[in-house]
Design a protein that fits this description.
The radius of gyration is 24 Å and the shape is elongated. The chain is of the alpha/beta class and about 300 residues long. It has 2 domains: about 210 residues, Rossmann fold (3-Layer(aba) Sandwich); about 80 residues, 2-Layer Sandwich (formyl-coa transferase, domain 3). β7 and β8 form a beta hairpin. It starts with 19 loop residues before the first strand and ends with a strand. The strands form 2 sheets. A 6-stranded parallel beta sheet has the order 3-2-1-4-5-6, with helices on both faces. A 3-stranded antiparallel beta sheet has the order 7-8-9. The chain is about 45% helix and about 15% strand. The protein contains 15 helices and 9 strands.
Length: about 300
């Protein structure tokens, strides 16, 4: 499987160089946010709970290491990890020793869990005035204690199709970007105000943000990017599929010229005849032919296996 484009290493401005980020967050959103912080130059530390009793040597208290070691390794590359049972005095002592030299703390507990662990913002700010906290939660306000996961947040924002699971974890990854953005905001606040700040990032809010194009009608059936425009669809080709994104007039004109469609104006791109002609033409072309054509004719398309 090819490496996803976003996962490939790209040059970074190192905007967080010199900033120390400590995370207590498990699973995906928190570690993904920490990964982004590390990529921006932050010194990143993560404290994990002890693994379950009877777990094999090298086990982690983060479930991610158990059900996907590859993802866990990628998320924690360059991150210093340690163990701390926050329900014990020793664990709390270790945590606060780390917090004393930390700029931003990332958590992903429900509010009630933070209370039990003595990690409310009021308590933290009193002990560590310089510290900022980015709290990743499921939902804000009255719904903060509700259980949920990526799938339920997508469902409540009408981002599921039929009985199919989504291709990726949109709310979790969107939330991780928002959390890393919040870290940047916290650092800017610290530098301008000289004290820490508390920021919340809701995964349900991340899903809602991802859903905005749909809420605006941009991706509704029949809209320009909802299948209505013949130049913006996924079609079958002779030996697979092809995602065509010839939305702008000059791209649509190139596509229509290649497919033998006479008119390529906006109205023409929405007609059944244009859809049918392009669909029939693509079915006669192989992926290799279409890849070559895309380069030669400057048509934005990407071929896929069946």
């Amino acid at each position: 499987m090819p490496t996803p484009t976003a996962a490939r290493k790209t040059p970074s401005l190192q905007s967080l160089k010199g900033v120390r980020v400590l995370s207590l967050a498990l699973n995906l959103p928190g570690p993904a946010a920490l990964m982004r912080c590390r990529q921006m130059g932050a010194s990143c530390v993560k404290l994990e709970p002890p693994p379950p009793q009877g777990a094999p040597a090298g086990a982690s208290g983060d479930p991610m290491k158990h059900y996907n070691p590859t993802a866990y390794a990628a998320l924690h590359d360059g991150v210093r990890t340690g163990l701390a049972d926050l329900k014990t005095e020793a664990g709390q002592k270790k945590l606060h020793s780390e917090l004393a030299k930390t700029d931003v703390l990332i958590t992903s507990f429900r509010p009630s869990a933070l209370v039990k662990l003595g990690l409310t913002w009021k308590a933290l700010h009193k002990q560590h005035p310089h510290l900022s906290q980015v709290a990743i939660v499921g939902s804000l306000g009255e719904r903060a204690e509700e259980p949920g996961h990526d799938l339920t947040y997508l469902a409540e924002n009408d981002l599921l199709t039929g009985l199919n699971l989504p291709a990726t974890l949109y709310a979790d990854m969107g939330g991780s970007l928002m959390a890393s953005e919040a870290v940047l905001q916290a650092v800017m606040h610290q530098r301008s105000k000289g004290k820490g700040v508390y920021l919340e990032v809701a995964l349900s809010g991340a899903a809602a943000y991802m859903a905005l194009p749909r809420a605006w009608g941009l991706t509704q059936a029949g809209s320009a990017v909802g299948g209505g425009h013949a130049g913006y669809r996924v079609y079958a080709c002779k030996d697979g599929r092809v995602a065509v994104a010839a939305l702008e007039p000059h791209f649509a004109a190139s596509l229509c010229a290649a497919a033998g469609v006479e008119a390529s104006g906006m109205k023409a791109m929405f007609t059944p005849a244009t859809h049918e002609t392009i669909e029939a033409w693509l079915k006669t072309r192989t992926r290799k032919e279409l890849d070559k054509l895309a380069v030669q004719q400057d048509i934005p398309l990407h071929t896929l296996a069946p």
